[in-house]
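Sequence of EamA-like transporter family protein (Pseudonocardia xinjiangensis).
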Amino acid sequence: MSALDEEIEPRSRGRSRVVAIGAAVAAGAGLAVQARLNGELGARLGDGVAASLASTTVGVLVLLALVPTVATGRRGLRFVGAALRTGSLRWWHCCGGVGGALFVAGQGVSVGTLGVAVFTVAVVGGTAVGSLVADRSGLGPGGRHPITTARIGGAAACVAAVAIAAHDRLGSRGTVLLLGLPLLAGVAAAVQSALNGRVGAAARSPWPATLVSFVVAEVALGLALLVVLAVRGVPAGRLPAEPWLYAAGLVGIVVIATAAHFVGRIGVLVFSLAGIAGQLLGALALDALTAGPRPSVATWIGTAVTFGAVALAARPSSRREPRA
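Predicted 3D structure, token representation.
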């Protein structure tokens, strides 16, 4: 390799990294919009799980109409099948949609009570912890990343930010339990990004991975809805006529495809942290400009602490352990 090539290659990697981080920020903003749509749909239907299933069904139908009908999609599905047969891809790598189901169900159930901003800050804590574990274990396609003091400190600061942002809404047991749901959803989102990245790498395209994730999420949400119907009966609400309320599934397609394509370039933690930044920006804007719970001073403080935690945890992200 010539000296010029050695100089160009780091620049190319740097540009690729910037593009990946920018895409993650945009995807995070999309998650904030998805949270508001699922929350509103859940309020109209009277059930967050039913709302999540409705929006996910829209995404499944769109993906089934597109992915198998184009050559890239068909080829990617064949690659996934071949990887499963050879064992380079395990069956549980295709279960990232379960995490997505938990995430969108958490949106539909808790956003209406907590508000988008508090929900998002709570997700930050779970995502930070889940991303640390996913990167350290090499769960994603980009190899193992070390757990450093800065990363642990960033994760701890994120969890502290959850308490700061939500302390004024912890007056009841129900609210405390609702906070636990987005925390768990954050862990699930990190694992989902890692698993979808693996499937995307095997498919050599993000779209087959997105289809697999949506189908798994559809099945998981369908089973969850059956349990809800058995326990609580049919929801009192009805499907609203406004088509924009079902757009959360379309937003989810873009978010999952972005993760499947870019997470291998920058790792689960960096991708998640960049997504967190986008979520916070989008969530605070939505809570401030639309009807619903207003972001409190504590929420703004918690958001500021989270940004500091993001910067702290992302500092050593350029160091990576070799792939196995």
